[in-house]
Amino acid sequence: MPVLQGTGIEPLAVRCHSQDTGDEADEILLDRVEDQPLLSKPASRRDDRIQRKMPPHGVCCQIAGEASGNGDRAPTGVEDLLCLGGVGSAEDDTDAGHLGLARRNPKPGGVDEEIEVVRLARPFGPDEEPTTPEAGEDRLGHSGGEHAGDRGIDGISARSKDLGGRCCRGPRAGGHHGAARRAGDALGEIDSSGHPPHASADAYPGVMALEFHSSATASLGIELELGLVDLEKGDLVCSASEVLAELGAGHPEGEHPKIKHELFESTVEVITGICTTVAEARADLAESIRELDVQCAKRGIGLVGLGLHPFSNWHDLTRSPGERYERLVERIAWPARRLMTHGMHIHVGVRSGEKAIATVNTLSGYLPIFLALSASSPHWHGQDTGLASARTKVFEAMPTTGLPPYLANWTDFNSFLDTLIAAGSIETVREVWWDIRPHPGFGTVELRMCDATPTLREAGAMAALAQCLVQWCDDVIDSGESLPVPKEWVRRENKWRATRFGVDADLVIDDAGATRPLPQVTTDLVADLMPIAERLDCVADLQQVIVILNTGASYERQRDLLAGGATLEDLVAQAYRELQEDLVTDGSATA
After folding, report:
1. Nearest to 407 by CA among 215, 222, 207, 171
2. Total of domains in the chain
3. b/e map of 195-225 (b: 16 or more CB within 10 Å)?
4. Which one, 135, 186, 376, 405, has least CB within 10 Å?
5. 452 Cβ partners below 8 Å, 6+ apart?
């Protein structure tokens, strides 16, 4: 029996199970490794992923090895991963050149270990070397850093209610019982584990589940993209590399942990750490933005949070350095070349992949509210588009964007990923740019619908609304009741209405086509979420949602200024002043 290269273990027995049948299949793996045994694949972290094709009828196996003389397991020479090579032979046209990736899972107290074969992407030639994700990235496509995902607030009670109809039901204080519809509801039903009654993971044989790094509670993180503008002229300036180099001095690898590059040199992204409360997240953002602002001010540069710059042209912008950005533009072409958008992403921790999928399905019906309240991009290349959020339509031109499809469960999501990775459409989950998505690496649901907001108060309001809604979903699932899932056509119609009309939209609330003004739906929703906000300590921030409705979202404020005789340059100056004012108080709603 051959020694498994890179392990130092001579196997005494190999026990395999076919992923297709579950039957023992000792000879399958032995035949496959006899000519070309396991090749060592050093790994710096458990989640690295080689982007290659899984061998047909992949196997999961256990290898029983001999212990070393001192009672410890034999030295491996590889940390976590083994690359399964020689699937088929050079003479076998069908399987030659395919690789599989096997992860070692040592069992405590013994030398037995499991080898888990991970689904990979595409076939390659005999002379082609396997590739890995970019240096510093894990198999999820992330390069580390502190994001939302493992701290937060304990769950509390809420229940669903009809907000005027079957498609816009939401939370209501006072317990769960009797509020959610049962089987046969036209909205669909998800059980307490997050599965629809008809769905089962057994329906997806052979799909290797991506690990979801569970968050214990509804922790919070915010990512805010800001534009760099000339303080005198108001147009975008491409100085991000210069500013970030100075900010990164003294940090590992010369990179600031919370202020990052984006696609264009005219944009930076500011991210928070893992926060418990909205106030903590706002203060975290403010601290980093103040640090960034100091370096920008020395260069005559200001920071603005607008979904689109009102008059700069993408033809005049310089892309940020990096192979990742070059590949993105080469692959997607024109939609990526004009992607001068600024958005805000909110992460809220959830406890399992199944809960994440159920939450994504339900919250997709609430996304139009987030979009309308945050809309800050009525202009494009100097023209009023007539939209509240033109950024939404610019970004929708990219692949894997827009509203997510309905997903039955976590395995269904993995099946989706496997298909697109195998087809070469994406490399990692990082390239799934839905309006809301599960984030396995951070253990969160990530809401990506919002335009960048000019103020920290508005960012805090969106974060509070997101955190309360995710907590409500968690409570409903734990109660054993089903979450409402809106119809596909209702979701898409309401997203369009919010994109076009903002807070003046009338939302479709049932299958009969009845509508209610978005401000009414939102006001009811905020009232129903207040008990949750009290437990999450974000009442003042959630109340800012009502303030936005009363005083106007950013797109409304911009149009009001223009109606009073202001110029587009004045709009940029106003957005700059709004952020500067909030930096004094961390955007506190009570200041």
Report:
1. 207
2. 2
3. bbeebebeebeebbbbebbbbebbbbbbbbb
4. 135
5. 224, 225, 226, 227, 305, 306, 307, 342, 343, 344, 374, 376
Tell me if 403 sits within 8 A of 492, measured CB to CB.
yes
Range of the domain at 102: 13-118
Q: What is the CATH number of the domain that holds 475?
A: 3.30.590.20
Shared domain for 204 and 293, answered yes or no, is yes
pTM for this model (two decimals) = 0.71
Rounded distance between C-alpha atoms, residue 29 and residue 147, angstroms:
40
Task: Report how far residue 474's alpha carbon sits from residue 532's, in angstroms, rounded to the nearest whole number.
Answer: 12
> Is 152 part of any domain?
no
Looking at 88, 118, 148, the residue that finishes a domain is: 118
Q: Both 396 and 474 in a single domain?
A: yes
Q: What does the DSSP assignment read for 215-273? A: -SS--EEEEEEEEEEETTT--B---HHHHHHHHHTTSGGG--SSEEE-SBTTEEEEE--
- Which pLDDT value is given to residue 468? 98
Residue 578's alpha-carbon distances to 253, 304, 379, 575, in angstroms, are 33, 9, 18, 5
Write phi, then psi, for 475 (nearest 5 degrees): -65, -40
Is 440 contained in some domain? yes
pLDDT of residue 590: 72
Interatomic CA distance for residues 358 and 408, integer angstroms: 8
pLDDT in tens, 291-319: 999 999 999 999 999 999 999 999 999 99
Pair 451, 389: CB distance under 8 Å: yes
- Whether the pLDDT of residue 275 is over 50: the answer is yes
Last-in-domain residue among 118, 134, 157: 118
92 in Cβ contact with 52 (< 8 Å): no
pLDDT tens sequence across 400-450: 999 999 999 999 999 999 999 999 999 899 999 999 999 999 999 999 999
User: What angle in degrees, to the nearest 10, is found between the helix axes of 539-551 and 518-536?
Assistant: 160
What letter represents residue 62's amino acid?
A: Q
* Count of CB atoms situated within 10 Å of the CB of 250: 7
Is residue 493 included in any domain, yes or no?
yes
Residue with the bigger pLDDT between 545 and 14: it is 545
**What type of residue sits at position 584?**
V
